[in-house]
Structure formats: C-alpha cells, structure tokens
Specification:
single chain, 25% strand, 383 residues, 9-stranded mixed β-sheet, Rossmann fold
Length: 383
C-alpha cells in the first residue's frame, strides 16, 4: 500500500536535541521504517524541510542525512501549503514568536518545551492555537522512557497500594569549560538568554508528576547559583547569572509528597542520571531512564538501627528488577508517531500546548517560591 506524504517544517534541528532526537532518531527513523502506520493499515511518510539561519550548517546537515529540502527563510517556508506541520526545537526565547507565526500561517504545531519563558506568552500561544483550530502538541519525552513506563505499569496494576511519596534525583557535573569543554551550551547559565535549571527542568517535572503520581497542588523551591563563572564555546570567561541547581518539594493530589533535586553541579553516585523512588503502602520502586527495581512489602527487610555495628544487610540485593517484557522504542519517535496520527486521522492526543503551559506555570510558581521563600499554591490553569 502506498504512503501519503506529510510535509514537516523543522526548525532548530542543528542543535544537539533537535538533530539527534527529533531529526535522526525520530523523523529519519520513521522514514527508514516506511512511515507511520495508521489505523486502517495505510502509511504516512514525513517529508521534512530543515530550516536554519546558517546556510552552510543546515545544508551540510541535510546532505549528511539525505534530506533533500532545506532553507534559511522560515517566513517563505511557512507559505508553502504542502507543508502541514511546523516543529520547533530552537531557543525558548524565540519559541513564542515562531509558534505565533506558524499558527497564523495555518500550520499544526509541535514543539519542544518550555513553550515560553513566562506564563502570559504561553497562554497567548495556547489561545491563538485554539482560535485557529489547529492541532498542537508539546514534547513530553520523559513519559516515554522505559523506566518511567514501568513505573506507570506498576501504578496501574496497584502495586504501590496507596502512594505516599516520590523522590527524584536529577543531574550530573557539567564542566565549567576551562580545563574541559562543557557538555551544555553557555546560554544555559545566563538568565538573560533564557538559561537556568528551574526553567529547563521544572516544566519536565510538571508533566511527570501530573501524569504518573498526582496533580501538582503546591510547590516549595530553593534555587542556587553554585558556580559563579564559566567559560563559553570560544574559551572566554563569562558570569553565570542563572541558577544551576534547585531543590524542590511538591504537594500532589492524594496526599502524595514529591521531592526533586536537580543540579548541574553534582557528581553521580546512583544508577542513572535521573532516578525516581516511589514509596507506597504495598511496595516501593526505583526507576532510572531504562531500568526499574521493586520491593513489595512482603519482601521488605527489617533493619534495626545500631550505629555501633557495621550494617549487615545488603539492601541492594533485596530489590527485584522489573523484566523487559515489552520492547520500548525511542520515546521521542513514539511521541512523534502519536502526533502524526493525531494530525492525519484525528487520533486522541493529550500532550498539547495547554499541557506545555502548565509546565511554564509551575516554573513561575517555583521561581516565586524561591524569591519569596515560601510555599506557593498551583491553581488550575484558566485559558
């Protein structure tokens, strides 16, 4: 059966995330697999056009991966009626303006998060999309990680009983850039350029907490700038004006308490760069990006506090791995396929711009909590 073409304008794919996860491991992988399979068995073949400001860089990327279409003029690309979707993985500061342009051009929207640097801009984009009647989606990739999908399976099966708490640890040491190159771009550490770990990560925690553990009701957050100076891509020193770590507590629906530490200045002594421990009355689980281990109440050891003797229990050995009974595809690719089905055959899709705006809302609540040194309630988002 022949496949139907779907034109996609892809902006911001010369960056690490846009190139690796969205272009190579999603759109090109879908093309290699023969397109997205629809409910009637037919297929949709994405046809991307790569958009970037630097013609040398964008043309080289297109040539390297066999993409026939590329351009530097986004406004002209948006006028092409044969391209239905606009995708953006560029900088957060540029995103609201780009999304507004694409919405006014009648394109369906799919984009990275945060969808804006502040809530008024995020709400404006949501309203414009609703008024235009276009389909829209926001990347919420961590929901599709194998480790977190295993947590969802455990929750849905009733494994935890009544969930009581969630503890998340995220981060790693990002080199300052003087004696080793930094693993993240320098703008991440300049608040004037849209940097900061609270803006970068709390929007992730919103959809993870809401979808897996309970809707966020309030937040208490302390941010920090632990490293005051760093070195940029050209080797020049600059003042790091943005927060590089944050320590947050969230009250969730169902009386669940979540604590999440996030840091670009911590050295890893755990199983993965991000881990979540979920405790409940009937059992506990710890998940990373791919793996998950469990301990039911029937298998819980009975430690006794005695600081005068070396601990005799090997606690790690008392946990059981959740088997890989399911084959997990790349999470970014999975969500792309879901959104394409949503556009082409109106398949259900919940991860829209409003969900992205909720992430921005929680970012602002967390920043307010840090500034005012108090708990901040998270009201229902009204559009």
């Amino acid at each position: 059966m022949s496949s139907k073409r779907l034109g996609i304008i892809m902006h911001g794919v010369t960056g690490r995330m846009g190139m690796n996860q969205h272009l190579i491991r999603s759109i090109l992988a879908i093309r290699k697999a023969g397109g997205v399979v629809l409910s009637d068995g037919s297929r949709v073949m994405p046809d991307p056009i790569l958009i970037g400001r630097n013609p040398d860089k964008i043309s080289a990327l297109a040539q390297q991966y066999g993409v026939t279409r590329w351009a530097t003029d986004l406004d002209k690309a948006l006028l092409n009626p044969e391209d239905d979707i606009f995708f953006d993985a560029g900088t957060t500061q540029m995103r609201p303006e780009l999304l507004e342009k694409a919405i006014k051009a009648g394109k369906h929207i799919y984009c990275e998060k945060p969808i804006a640097t502040d809530l008024p801009q995020a709400v404006k984009v949501c309203k414009l999309a609703k008024e235009a009647g276009i389909k829209n989606g926001v990347v919420q990739d961590k929901l599709f990680l194998p480790g977190l999908m295993k947590l969802k399976m455990l929750r849905d099966s009733g494994f935890f009983g009544r969930m009581t708490s969630v503890r998340g640890e995220f981060g790693y040491w990002v080199f300052e850039g003087d004696w080793q190159p930094a693993q993240r771009p320098s703008w991440n550490y300049r608040s004037e350029d849209g940097g900061g770990i609270i803006l970068d990560m709390v929007c992730h925690w919103r959809y993870v907490l809401d979808n897996l553990f309970g809707e966020v009701k309030s937040v208490s957050c302390l941010g920090a700038r632990h490293i005051p100076a760093r070195w940029d891509e050209s080797g020049k020193t600059y003042e790091a004006t943005a927060d590089d770590a944050a320590y947050a507590t969230f009250e969730l629906a169902g009386d669940v308490v979540a604590q999440i530490n996030m840091s670009w200045v911590t050295r890893v002594y755990r199983d993965d760069l991000v881990t979540f421990q979920v405790d409940g009355t009937h059992g506990s689980a710890v998940a990373g990006l791919t793996d998950c281990v469990i301990q039911p109440r029937q298998g819980t050891p009975r430690p006794v506090w005695n600081p005068d003797e070396k601990q005799a229990i090997d606690f790690y050995s008392t946990w059981q791995p959740v088997p890989d009974n399911t084959v997990y595809d790349n999470g970014f690719k999975t969500q792309w396929e879901m959104f394409i089905r949503h556009v082409v055959e109106d398949a259900p899709y919940k991860y829209n711009l409003v969900e992205g705006a909720k992430g921005v809302q929680l970012v602002e609540n967390a920043l307010q909590s840090w500034k005012e040194r108090r708990w901040v309630d998270v009201p229902a988002l009204k559009l």
